[in-house]
Amino acid sequence: MAISYEDAGVSLQAADDSTKRISALAKTTFGPQVLKDIGLFAGFYQPEWQKYQTPVLVSSIDGVGTKLKIAFLLNRHHTVGQDLVNHCVNDIMTSGADPLFFLDYIGAQKLHPDIAEKIIAGMAQACRENKCALIGGETAEMPGFYQTGEYDLAGCIIGIVDKDQVIDGSRIAVGDHLIALSSNGFHTNGYSLVRKVLLEVQKVDLRREVKELRGSWGDILLKVHRSYRQAISAVRDLQGLVGISHITGGGIVGNTRRLLRPGLELAIDWTAWEWLPEFRLLQKLGDIADEEMRQVFNLGIGLVLIVQPDETKSVINRLVALHEQPMIIGQVIEQAQAK
User: Fold this and answer.
1) What does the pLDDT look like over 248-263, one tens digit per residue?
2) Measured between alpha carbons, how far is 262 from 104 in angstroms, rounded to an integer?
3) Closest of 177, 174, 166 to residue 306, by C-alpha
C-alpha cells in the first residue's frame, strides 16, 4: 500500500491554501520598494538609498514567547502577529532606524489555514501601521515535533538609519534623565511566571471578569504589545536624546543598563509611577517579591528615553503633543554612587 505525505501528517493542499491567503494579506503592506510577489524563494526590496548619506542596515529577530500559550487556551490568534511585528519594530527603532521589511516563521504540528490567516492578518495590520512591508516568510508543518493545536511564531525585521544618526548609548553621561513611556500591560514578556501563578497555583479562569482589572485575565494578557514608532520618530532627531531602551525581558533596569558604559549606573525612582493593576494583582496572587517583579516585568513602563538635561523639556513637549504621558523616572549616576 502506497504511503503519501498526507499519511505522514503533512497536507500539501493546506499549505497551498495558506500560501494563497497569506500572499493576499502581504500585498496590503507592499509599496513601490517591494519588487516581487510572495511565493518565490526570496523577497525583493529596493530601499530608497538616496534618502541616506551613509545608510546602515539594522536587523533584529524575535518571538512572542509563551504568550502563545494564552492564545492557544483562549483560541484567539489575531493579536499575536501584531505583538511580533511591534516588538521587532521597537527593537530596531531604539537605534534610530526606520523599519523597511519583515519576514515571519510559523511552525505547527498541523497547519490550519484559518488560524494561519488570523496570525498573518495581525502581522499585516501591524506592518501597515509601522510602515514596513511583509515580503515573505515560512510556514512549516511538522507532525510529531509540535504539540497538537499549538504553533511557534518568530519574525525578522530589517531597518535602515544614517550612520551619523545611530543612537547607541555611547554619549550617555552622569546626570542624564530617564524619561519613560507607558506600556499597556505585560506586552510579550514574563508569561512563564504569569502562567505559573494564574494557571498552576491559582487555577484562574482566564475568561472570567475580574473587578480589579475591569475585564478578564484573558483580555489583559492578550493586549497587543505597543508600538513606539510614532514616539521615537518624533524625538530621535534631537541631539540630546542619547539612548533608547525597549523594556522587554529583564525589566527596566536589565534592559536600560545594556546601554551604559562601565562606570555608569541607573538611579530609578520606583515611586514615580503607579503600577498597572494587573501587576499588583499578579504580585498578590503569587506572593512575588518586589525585586522579582522589577526583574521580570515592565511594570507599566514600555520604553525609556535617556536624555541630556538641557533637552528634557523639548523631548517631553514633543511626546505630549502626541498625547503621550512621559514621566521622569530617574537619572544616570556614577557607579560608585549606586547603593
Assistant:
1) 999 999 999 999 999 9
2) 36
3) 177
Report how far residue 172's alpha carbon sits from residue 175's, in angstroms, rounded to the nearest whole number.
9
pLDDT at 288: 98
Q: Which residues contact 70 (CB under 8 A, 6 or more apart)?
A: 191, 195, 206, 218, 221, 222
- SS3 state of residue 329: strand
Indicate the fold that domain 12-165 takes in CATH. 60s Ribosomal Protein L30; Chain: A; (3.30.1330)
CA 289 to chain centroid:
26
Output b/e per residue, 25-39; b: 16+ Cβ within 10 A.
bbeebbeeebeeebe
Q: Residue 291 carries which DSSP code?
A: H
Q: What is the mean pLDDT of residues 203-226?
A: 96
Residue with cell 472570567: 208
pTM over 0.85: yes
Instruction: Extract the C-alpha cell encoding 270.
Output: 520606583
Note whether 12-165 and 177-337 share their fold.
no
Q: Amino acid letter at 329?
A: I
**Confidence grade of residue 111 (pLDDT, cut at 50, 70, 90):** confident
20-73: per-residue pLDDT in tens?
Answer: 778 889 999 999 999 998 888 899 999 999 999 999 999 999 999 999 999 999
- CA–CA–CA angle 99, 87, 17 (5° rounding): 80
Helical H segments across the chain, by residue range: 12-27, 67-74, 80-93, 113-129, 191-195, 217-221, 229-235, 251-256, 277-286, 290-296, 312-321
Instruction: Report how far residue 272's alpha carbon sits from residue 293's, in angstroms, rounded to the nearest whole number.
Output: 16
CA 74 and chain centroid, separation = 21
Task: Please check whether residue 130 is in contact with residue 224, taking contact to mean a CB–CB distance below 8 angstroms.
Answer: no
- Residues of 87-112 as b/e, b for ≥16 C-beta within 10 angstroms? bbbbbbbbbbbbbbbbbbbbbbbbbb
Domain 177-337 matching CATH 3.90.650.10: the answer reads yes
Grid coordinates belonging to 23: 500572499
Q: Where are the domains of the chain?
A: 12-165, 177-337
